[in-house]
Amino acid sequence: MTTSVLPNITELKPGFGARIDGVDLAGADDATLQAVVAAFHQHGAILLRDQPMKPQDLLRFISAFGEPEDHTLQENTLPGFPKIYVLSNRIVDGKPIGAHNDGIGWHTDYSYRAEPVMSTMLYAVEVPPEGSDTLLADGCAAWNALPPERQAQLDGLELHHSWRHFMNTREFNRQEEPSEALLAENPDVLHPLVRRHPSDGRKALWASTGTVKEVVGMPNPEGLALVDELVEFMTQEAFVYRHKWRAGDVLMWDNRCTLHTGTLYDDQKYVREMHRLWVKGDRPY
Ligand SMILES: [Fe+2]
After folding, report:
1. 3-279 falls under which CATH superfamily?
2. Distance 54 CA to ligand 1 centre (A)
3. How far is the CA of 113 from the centre of ligand 1 (A)?
């Protein structure tokens, strides 16, 4: 399936991402959905605007990409929809309906698992008029911008990712300590610093913050300083797409070749509600 059946594709920024217009996702036939999937694999991220999507529409759409992934913290999922995770500051009957301030800081999702999620989709139900942007950094562009000598030094390095480390050092959502059962379900893993994309072999710089504890074979603080340097390099403006949200936006990015971060907003003044869905991924190589 090629992307040519899609009526209108424009890049989100030169060389990265695709805004797809003229498709109604909730009513799209399977061939159209497969063309959207193909655009996703090619461009690193896709954006579709003005999409009225019910939870079951979101599940059908995400299932075109693969199997939906479970979420680590089930208490933040939409009632009746365990695959739909709610990001919100909204309080209903005295209880938060979702996670607040998740995903601040450059990272790739589920990086503490042996098979991190292939993609992350966010659907905007209600968004503040300012703040709460989502930023995506293009790991392929960053890799391609490195001199060959630097690439040779970095290719083959491995990062030690740890959910325990992440839980112990995170700045947000510190309200309770993770249970021993959850820690046992999420043992430490090693992932490559430079990741190949299975669709065409293209390479991406794949450093991250949060879950990275060390560079294998490199003592700290030098190891983490290298990770910080690479994240800073990859997230400079030249490689970053900044998404300003509108209600009805579907933004989906490929975690195999990007980093992302949320940004804060005035949560006393505004309400934000986003629905997040994940697609299962493979072992990085
Ligand atoms: Fe995230």
Report:
1. Clavaminate synthase-like (3.60.130.10)
2. 22
3. 14
